[in-house]
Design a protein that fits this description.
By secondary structure, this protein is mainly alpha-helical. It is 48% helix and 8% strand.
């Protein structure tokens, strides 16, 4: 989970749909706007280009029309995460709230080996941070037999991305000898650390855990 910026103003169609008895909050260009705002990533697990896409109500609307059609309350999520979150996790960090410092409040770790689980650590004692850490642990490690299978697939994708990232880090630090080679590696590393990259949080924590790497690459945390 990384901080993102929602675009404004809200799509005009939402106000019109709210007036209808069976209005559709996926109206007009809502889907395209959400896809762009969230970089086509599930806001919870950070899976890029998810095959199952849900427009999630960050705060469950439970029939409340204001919440149901509120642009601020519409998020881009994959089916796995939306189903895992459901109505069980109401009080969690909001990635569109710039005051919620996600990169500093929750630690992500997955060792670069097969069959490893994801370790999520709340770095603050606030209930909202601990609730978010619990949700992320459920998302990445599973809670039911079916969810554990889905989580295993996500972890494989996380592992693939981490290994690609570390291979470029290794090349940059030890093998790239010419300035052109260094610059090419640097471009790849910068892309991996941007918000739009898959599983950005894991890669940023690899950087944050090393003082030398943090000093050199934290500048790419957009």
């Amino acid at each position: 989970m990384v901080n993102v910026k929602k675009s404004y103003p809200a799509p005009k169609c939402l106000a019109e749909e709210k007036k209808k008895k069976n209005g559709d909050y996926k109206c007009g260009n809502v889907l395209e706007r959400l896809k762009n705002d969230f970089k086509n990533k599930c806001y919870i697990c950070e899976y890029k280009c998810p095959s199952t896409i849900n427009v999630e109500h960050f705060v469950p609307h439970r029939g409340d029309k204001e919440l149901k059609f509120d642009w601020v309350n519409l998020f881009w999520a994959c089916g796995h995460c939306n189903n895992t979150k459901s109505d069980k996790y109401d009080n969690i960090l909001n990635c569109t709230n710039s005051e919620h410092d996600l990169v500093n409040w929750i630690r992500y770790e997955m060792k670069p080996f097969p069959k490893e689980k994801v370790n999520i650590t709340a770095l603050r004692d606030d209930e909202i941070v601990k609730n978010t850490a619990q949700l992320l642990d459920a998302v990445y490690n599973g809670t039911t037999p079916l969810k554990k299978m889905e989580s295993s697939n996500i972890r494989k994708s996380v592992l693939d991305e981490i290994m690609k990232f570390q291979a470029i880090l290794y090349e940059y630090c030890f093998e790239a000898s010419h300035p052109e080679e260094k610059n090419e590696c640097l471009k790849h590393l910068e892309r991996h650390l941007k918000t739009s990259s898959p599983f950005t949080s894991f890669k940023r924590w690899i950087i944050r855990e090393n003082k030398e790497l943090k000093k050199e690459f934290e500048q790419f945390f957009d």
